[in-house]
Design brief:
Elements: H1 2-6, H2 10-14, E1 17-18, E2 21-22, H3 23-55, H4 62-88, H5 94-129, H6 134-138, H7 141-163, H8 168-185, H9 187-202, E3 210-213, E4 216-223, E5 227-232, E6 237-241, H10 242-246, E7 250-252, E8 259-267, H11 273-288, E9 293-303, E10 308-316, H12 321-342, H13 360-375
Antiparallel strand pairs: 1-2, 3-4, 3-7, 4-5, 5-6, 8-10, 9-10
Helix pairs in contact: 3-4, 4-5, 5-7, 11-12
């Protein structure tokens, strides 16, 4: 064995040529590749890791985004650069060189498009998060980013094919003719897509809003490119196309700062004038006792078919429906209690038949007695 190595001429071995490159060339490429990989790993595991820990303590998001982008896209780009420099040192055939160039171009295009998409997403998130209810609006960027990514990748692939020598002009002409046919066949889909942008920029409602559309109501759960999902009060999921929503009358209760309440009371015609005058004042006192409530008015509004009608208006200083119902319930309890203490009676639907020749006073007394017996059971 020793005699074999003693007789081996290393210079002759290094000078041997395989596929137009010497052994020394291959060793240089291998060594430079390994050295580049080691340097990149050292940069990632030590330098980049320390920088990431520093930026994590800062209040800005830009430096965090730059470090994350470097980790996700910069490191792979460095690997591609090492491979390109190393292999480019070799003398490759025309076919191998073309394949190698295609691979490098494809990888670099992929990274550039990913970086561009990430930058656009970061800019949009930063812009939207500064707006009112920004945290909720950030969730709605999914559909918009889907469209933006489609445009980015379509344009990027066209440039890629053009650099590879394909006839992009002919392909675009074919796509233009086919695009007209596709657009005609998918008018509803394109309409929903454009209406998604209307919803996103005009903001008639957002994720988390309580809305009523015709006889359907619920909380907006997700706004997509084609449809919007609403979770109803009974628990099932309602799905509306975006076109239906933009052409409908939508009641958005999430943005309501306060709720205007109108209710009516009917009293029997036997109520005295003194009691009638007390009712508006009493209703105001009852409503003023409630929390988060603003009294507006209480009036003897009209003479009904079988009752003396009062109309009451007040505001609940909250948009929460359960809070409104709690307030209204407490008002109803208190009204019932106060009216009972003062002998004020509520009216109920009645019909009276007056016989010919019957004394009016006798009729009123009989009707009043029958009504009292009906109330007392």
């Amino acid at each position: 064995m020793n005699e074999f190595f003693e007789g081996l001429n290393y210079e002759e071995v290094l000078a041997r040529v395989y596929y137009k490159n010497t052994v020394q060339d291959y060793l240089i490429v291998l060594g430079s590749t390994l050295l580049g990989i080691l340097l990149i790993r050292f940069f990632k595991n030590h330098i980049l890791k320390k920088v990431k820990s520093w930026t994590g303590k800062s209040k800005t998001l830009v430096d965090n985004f730059l470090v994350q982008s470097m980790e996700r896209y910069g490191v792979p780009a460095l690997y591609i650069g090492v491979a390109y420099v190393s292999i480019n040192y070799l003398n490759l055939s025309a076919g191998a060189n073309r394949i190698f160039r295609y691979i490098i171009t494809l990888l670099l295009t992929f990274l550039v498009l990913r970086i561009l998409s990430s930058v656009i997403l970061m800019v949009l998130q930063s812009y939207v998060s500064k707006k009112e209810r920004g945290a909720e609006r950030v969730k709605e960027l999914g559909g918009l980013m889907l469209v933006i990514n489609f445009v980015i990748w379509a344009v990027g692939l066209l440039f890629l094919f053009d650099n590879m020598g394909f006839n992009v002009t002919a392909a675009l002409a074919g796509l233009g003719i086919g695009g007209v046919a596709i657009a005609l066949a998918s008018q509803n889909i394109l309409g929903d897509l454009f209406n998604y942008f209307v919803i996103f920029f005009d903001k008639p409602f957002e994720t988390g809003d309580f809305i009523i559309v015709d006889d359907k109501m619920g909380v907006v759960d997700y706004i997509g490119v084609k449809s919007t999902q609403v979770k109803s009060l009974s628990g099932e999921q309602l799905i509306f196309s975006n076109s239906d929503l933009t052409t409908s009358r939508i009641h958005n209760y999430k943005r309501m700062q306060r709720r205007r309440i109108v209710f009516k009371l009917g009293l029997v015609y036997e109520t005295s004038l003194e009691q009638l005058k007390q009712v508006p004042v009493l209703l105001k006192e009852i409503i003023d006792r409630q929390r988060m409530v603003e009294f507006d008015r209480a009036h003897f509004a009209s003479y009904g078919a079988y009752s003396l009608d009062f109309e009451v208006v007040y505001y609940v200083l909250s948009s929460d429906y359960n809070n409104y119902m709690d307030v209204q319930q407490q008002i109803n309890f208190t009204i019932f209690e106060e009216f009972e203490n003062r002998g004020i009676e509520f009216a109920f639907p009645t019909q009276s038949l007056i016989m010919k020749g019957q004394n009016q006073e006798t009729f009123r007394e009989n009707a009043y007695r029958e009504e009292r017996e009906h109330v007392n059971g």
